[in-house]
Specification:
196 residues; mainly alpha; globular; 0% strand
């Protein structure tokens, strides 16, 4: 039927989008999967907030003359944002079965296949889409919030040593360096030149 074809095209879009996101942002994908595994309830809570707030902000922006471009852009991007959330949920689900350090791409495909199979069940596809989008948006929000307090790593700062630490500098003594001359040495040297 038409509903199944639309659902299949949507899931194929999620597959392509997820593969592209992991190709161009592998560390970000790992951070989202880690946030989903480490803070599942926070991911659910923030996901509900994002799922409801995004269209609400878009509608408010449409009715506000100043924020009209922002509102229209946000409403048009809702499908993309929800698809990103569903892709994040697929990766998180796949990581439950396909642990690190094994391929994140295969983990994503496994999670995507499970979500697609469950979504094919009648009257369940919409629930899977909403739940996946909510959880994925939430885990993405948690991952972004965690990275806000992490300072960027400076290249070459401290080498292998602790950042901010200083290596002690030892100046070796050289035998060619002259010893200081006293007054007695100066007089003895001068008398030797005169009488010598």
């Amino acid at each position: 039927s038409g509903t199944r074809r639309r659902r299949a095209r949507a899931m194929l879009s999620v597959l392509a989008l997820g593969l592209l996101l992991m190709l161009f942002g592998p560390r970000a994908a790992d951070a989202v999967a880690l946030a989903a595994r480490g803070s599942p309830w926070s991911s659910v809570g923030w996901g509900v907030v994002a799922f409801v707030a995004l269209p609400l902000v878009g509608v408010i922006g449409v009715f506000t003359l100043v924020l009209l471009p922002l509102g229209l852009g946000l409403l048009l991007a809702l499908f993309l944002l929800y698809s990103v959330g569903l892709a994040a949920s697929a990766l998180s689900l796949g990581r439950v079965l396909w642990h690190e350090p094994r391929s994140r791409f295969l983990a994503f495909v496994i999670g995507w296949a499970i979500l697609t199979a469950v979504a094919a069940i009648p009257f369940v596809g919409g629930i899977v889409w909403v739940a996946g989008a909510v959880f994925g948006l939430g885990s993405t929000s948690v991952a972004i919030w965690r990275t806000r307090g992490t300072p960027p790593r400076q290249r070459g700062a401290g080498g292998r040593h602790r950042q901010g630490g200083k290596m002690p500098v030892v100046i070796p003594a050289t035998s060619d360096e002259p010893e200081p001359m006293t007054v007695q040495d100066l007089l003895r040297h001068t008398s030797g030149l005169i009488y010598g």
